[in-house]
Amino acid sequence: MASNRVEQIAAHLNYPKGMLAGQTAIITGSGQGIGAETARLFANEGAKVVISDIDASKASSVADSINSAGGQALAVPGDMLDDAYISSLVKKAADFGGGKLHIIVNNAGYTWDGVIHRTTDKQWDTILALHNTAPFKLVRAAAPYFRVKDGEPRNVVNISSTSGLHGNAGQANYALAKAGVTGLTKTIAKEWGPNFGVRANTVAFGYIMTRLTAAKEEGGFVTLPDGEKVALGIPQAQKAARESGDAAFKDIPLGRPGTATEAASAILSVVSPLMSYVSGQTISVTGGRNM
User: Fold this and answer.
1) What is the pTM for the complete model shown?
2) Residue 216 counted as domain residue
3) Domain interval for residue 108
4) What backbone torsions phi and psi does residue 205 show, to the nearest 5 degrees?
């Protein structure tokens, strides 16, 4: 199998049809932000992309824009906390891929912050279910399409955060969840690397400009199945203090936050043939912060 992979890489060294030509990818949380940019970059590299997002209109919009640009995309909206949805997502993705599935990017998620002594059970359980249990269930459901010996590349990318690597005040639930995915990644790499050649890696983001790092007062929120709304972002006063004057991003060597496209580019790099011998790793995308 190793020789087949080497031959495959050599034969497509110039990637005339894209680095991901012939592959099918599920990208969760791809209705906006980093997930949407990842879908667009994957499609540009020849992959068929499945847009998974709880917001059906946003998922359809991303898929339509990719298809209009000449790519191949399918919107399959739904709630990652719904077991029936996960089963349906895998089936529809495999059908879209002609019976095959090659890439899973576990990107869906959000923050629901609170200091330890005020964090509720609901906050705790929801964040761990979304960032840990849902990715596990998706990977488990997709096992029949990954535990195969057809010589084709297979990749799982779990998205983490510097909160998971270093902790963060007010984010005990999120920090634990994002630390947990690194263990899941390494286990996938150790179980499915031998015999099947599956690569699994974690990409941990620092300060990326998304709705999670915008001012909370700007109105971003997530609506839970029971109708409760969770406000996203950083309180304006705290955000302003972080970014004021000469102190702006002073702990980031590159001196600025990253963009969603830069974040997505890191994910593309990890699943590409250019990193075919990288597995079980946590790759920090932070502009140099926390080095």
Assistant:
1) 0.89
2) no
3) 2-210+257-285
4) -95, 145
231 to 14, 52, 62, 73, 243: CA distances (angstroms): 45, 21, 23, 30, 21
Our answer to whether residue 174 is catalytic in this structure is yes
Residue 246 in any domain: the answer is no
CATH number, position 21: 3.40.50.720
d(CA 276, CA 269): 10
Average pLDDT for 219-229: 72
Which amino acid is residue 267, in one-letter code? I
Is the Cα dihedral 86, 88, 94, 96 positive or negative? negative
Q: Looking at the domain assignment, is residue 229 inside a domain?
A: no
For residue 225, what pLDDT is reported?
73
223 within some domain: no
What number of other Cβ atoms are within 10 A of residue 131's Cβ? Answer: 29
- Tally of structural domains, the chain: 1
Say how far apart CA 42 and CA 268 lie, in whole Å.
7
Per the residue annotation, which of 110, 145, 174, 207 is the catalytic one? 174
Q: What is the pLDDT of residues 253-265, one digit of tens each?
A: 999 999 999 999 9
Radius of gyration of the chain (CA): 19
Instruction: Tell me the C-alpha distance between 173 and 71, whole Å.
Output: 37
